[in-house]
């Protein structure tokens, strides 16, 4: 069974697999060398898999004996069998069946895909299965576990800023993963947005706004980008949709039971007025407002060529590991110290 642009699946795991395989296939269609670079990274064998013009197969739910893996990516030179879960609930019998059914080809790997890392017990069990199977094989196979967030980061790292088409596809995949609860890193994500002429108002009113119709990935931090630099960072307190009715700010969307303070209400109203007076923006309806506790000034310099096209996500525990653990509690993060740390870094 081949992957499809238009879903045939109702099961969430099958949908997640189909969308992931579709993303990978778009890499191949767009630029084959990007595809092979990602494949090599996935199987942990840099530059071992070479481009081949023939025989690439990306399939889903194909039975082989007792094994029905969620997906398979294969070609002469490599074979990746994929099992997807919405947690770390990989069954021993299913995994062992996949491993035992894999043919003795070079660069073979079982790839498990989930929102969260494997716990040590499951990881050790998979290592046991692989070790036992490799005693019977000429070409050893391997096991790789990757989260949806790590898959996004892997592909993002391979894309150049000028790869606009693939950047858009990856962003849509990120939004799908976020909406489906497949990302476990929202508490450590910073979304940098190009603000240009609204920077002063963003800082003054401690907010950012987007059209309500525009999808977005869950994130906890907001960075304001202007003139080759992220110039401020803030922690998001609330995300609300409002309308200005009879000169009063009225909530029409947001988290269930959401409330805003009197100060936030005044800031939103003043931002709506300033947006119209300064830039002729119609913000009185149809917009989400991302309200931060406070924007702290920083100087996170972009050293690569070109400006920021729209937005970019940063995983803060990767770029500022001295402040953040792998699983930070967002409420415990000192944003002022984060701003100071970012000022020492470049991207």
What is the strand and helix layout of this fold?
Layout: H1 12-30, H2 32-43, E1 57-60, E2 71-75, E3 78-84, H3 92-101, E4 108-114, H4 120-134, E5 141-147, H5 148-158, H6 164-179, E6 189-194, H7 199-205, E7 207-211, E8 221-225, E9 229-245, E10 248-254, H8 262-279, E11 287-292, E12 296-301, E13 311-315, H9 316-319, H10 335-342
Parallel strand pairs: 3-4, 4-5, 6-8
Antiparallel strand pairs: 1-2, 2-3, 6-13, 7-11, 8-9, 9-10, 9-11, 9-12
Helix pairs in contact: 1-2, 1-6, 3-4, 5-6, 7-8
Please characterize this protein's 3D structure.
The chain is elongated, with a radius of gyration of 23 Å. The longest helix has 19 residues, at 12-30. With 347 residues, the protein is an alpha+beta fold. Strands 6, 7, 8, 9, 10, 11, 12 and 13 form an eight-stranded mixed beta sheet that branches. Helix 4 (120-134) links the parallel strand 4 and strand 5 (141-147). The chain has helices spanning 12-30, 32-43, 92-101, 120-134, 148-158, 164-179, 199-205, 262-279, 316-319, 335-342, and strands at 57-60, 71-75, 78-84, 108-114, 141-147, 189-194, 207-211, 221-225, 229-245, 248-254, 287-292, 296-301, 311-315.
- Radius of gyration, taken over Cα atoms and rounded to an integer in Å: 23 Å
Largest sheet: 8 strands, mixed
Which overall shape is indicated by the principal axes computed on the Cα atoms? elongated
Q: Specify the helix fraction band.
A: 25-40%
Number of H- or I-type helical stretches: 10
Low-confidence stretches are: none
What's the N-to-C terminus distance?
A: 42 Å
Q: Give the tally of β-strands.
A: 13
Strand content: 25-35%
Query: Could you spell the SSE succession in H and E letters?
Result: HHEEEHEHEHHEHEEEEHEEEHH
Structural class: alpha+beta
């Amino acid at each position: 069974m081949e992957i499809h642009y238009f879903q045939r699946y109702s099961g969430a795991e099958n949908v997640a697999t189909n969308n992931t395989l579709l993303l990978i296939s778009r890499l191949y269609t767009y630029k084959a060398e990007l595809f092979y670079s990602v494949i090599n990274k996935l199987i942990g064998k840099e530059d071992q898999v070479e481009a081949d013009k023939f025989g690439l197969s990306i399939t889903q739910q194909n039975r082989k004996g007792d094994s029905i893996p969620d997906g398979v990516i294969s070609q002469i030179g490599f074979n990746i069998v994929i099992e997807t879960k919405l947690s770390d609930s990989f069954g021993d019998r299913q995994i062992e069946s996949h491993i035992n059914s894999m043919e003795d080809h070079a660069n073979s790997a079982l790839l498990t895909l989930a929102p969260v890392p494997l716990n040590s017990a499951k990881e050790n069990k998979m290592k046991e299965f692989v070790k036992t199977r490799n005693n019977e094989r000429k070409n050893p196979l391997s096991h790789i576990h990757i989260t949806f967030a790590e898959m996004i980061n892997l592909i993002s790292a391979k894309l150049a800023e000028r790869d606009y088409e693939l950047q858009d596809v990856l962003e849509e995949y990120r939004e799908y993963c976020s909406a489906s609860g497949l990302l476990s890193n929202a508490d450590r994500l910073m979304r940098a947005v190009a603000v240009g002429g609204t920077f002063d108002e963003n800082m003054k009113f401690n907010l950012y706004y987007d059209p309500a119709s525009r999808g977005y990935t869950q994130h906890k931090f907001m960075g304001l980008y202007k003139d080759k630099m992220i110039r401020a960072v803030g922690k998001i307190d609330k995300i609300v949709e409002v309308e200005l009715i009879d000169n009063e700010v009225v909530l029409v969307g947001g988290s269930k039971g959401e409330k805003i303070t009197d100060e936030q209400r005044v800031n939103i109203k003043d931002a709506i007025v300033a947006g119209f007076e300064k830039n002729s923006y119609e913000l009185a309806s149809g917009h989400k407002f991302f309200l931060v506790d406070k924007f702290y000034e920083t100087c996170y310099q972009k050293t690569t060529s070109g400006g920021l096209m729209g937005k970019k996500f940063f995983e803060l525990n990767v770029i500022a590991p001295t402040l953040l653990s792998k699983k930070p509690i967002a409420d415990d993060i000192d944003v002022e110290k984060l701003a100071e740390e970012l000022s020492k870094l470049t991207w």
